[in-house]
Amino acid sequence: MRHTISVLVENEFGVLSRVAGLFSGRGFNIESLCVAETTDAGVSRMTIVTSGNDQIVEQILKQLNKLVPVLKVIDLTGADTVVRELVLVKVNADNEGKQEVLRLVDIFRAKIVDVAPRCYTIEMTGGEGKVQAFLQMLRPLGIKDVVRTGKIAISRGA
Questions:
Q1: Could you list the mean pLDDT of each consecutive 10-residue stretch along the chain, which spans 158 residues?
Q2: pTM for the complete prediction?
Q3: Which positions ≥6 away from 86 have C-beta within 8 Å?
Q4: Treating both helix axes as pointing N-terminal to C-terminal, what angle do 15-25 and 54-66 enclose, rounded to 10 degrees?
Q5: DSSP 8-state class, residue 39
Q6: Sign of the C-alpha dihedral, residues 123, 145, 17, 3?
Q7: I need a surface site. Which of 74, 78, 79, 101 has the fewest CB within 10 A?
Q8: Are the beta carbons of 85 and 149 closer than 8 angstroms?
Q9: Residue 89 neighbours by CB under 8 Å, 6+ apart
Q10: How far apart (Å, rounded) are the C-alpha atoms in residues 51 and 65?
Q11: Burial 105-134, CB ≥16 within 10 A → b, else e
């Protein structure tokens, strides 16, 4: 089962390395990792997606809580959350495909952020399923490159 874990850490040198080392040292895989400062410049939030049964994830949570720069660990799996992913896609935009690309951008509420003579760069945010569907629809038009952020999540409400 996939789990989304939110970790608040002190924003200091080596924290990311320690967290990644905890996972690799115990044979756990990080499927997605996103790190950024919070409103407090001294604190960063890591959003980690990993797989494992409940016992494995419980062990991960306990080990994360033992790390000195870790301030708070929350397993967001099953919680009421807002989850998003950002994708930038560079897609062919030749004469035949331009209208189809524009139609898909409109349908998926994406936006074109760069235009070149033969390609568009498109930005789209949404849940993992929406991102996958968008990419699947663009594939026949000729995707040149894709960059994804991975999952970010925050609990709803106070």
A1: 93 92 88 94 94 86 91 92 96 89 96 94 96 96 95 88
A2: 0.84
A3: 123, 124, 125, 148, 149
A4: 140
A5: S
A6: positive
A7: 78
A8: yes
A9: 121, 122, 124, 134, 135, 138, 143, 145, 146
A10: 18
A11: beebebeeeeeeeebbbbebbbebebbeeb
Token digits for 144? 């040149």
The Cα–Cα gap between 4 and 48 comes to: 6
Helix (H) or strand (E) holding 146, with range, is strand 143-148
Cα 93 off chain centre by: 27
Residue with tokens 């106070």: 158
DSSP state string for 45-113: EEEEEEE--HHHHHHHHHHHHHSTTEEEEEE-TTS-EEEEEEEEEEEE--TTTHHHHHHHHHHTT-EEE
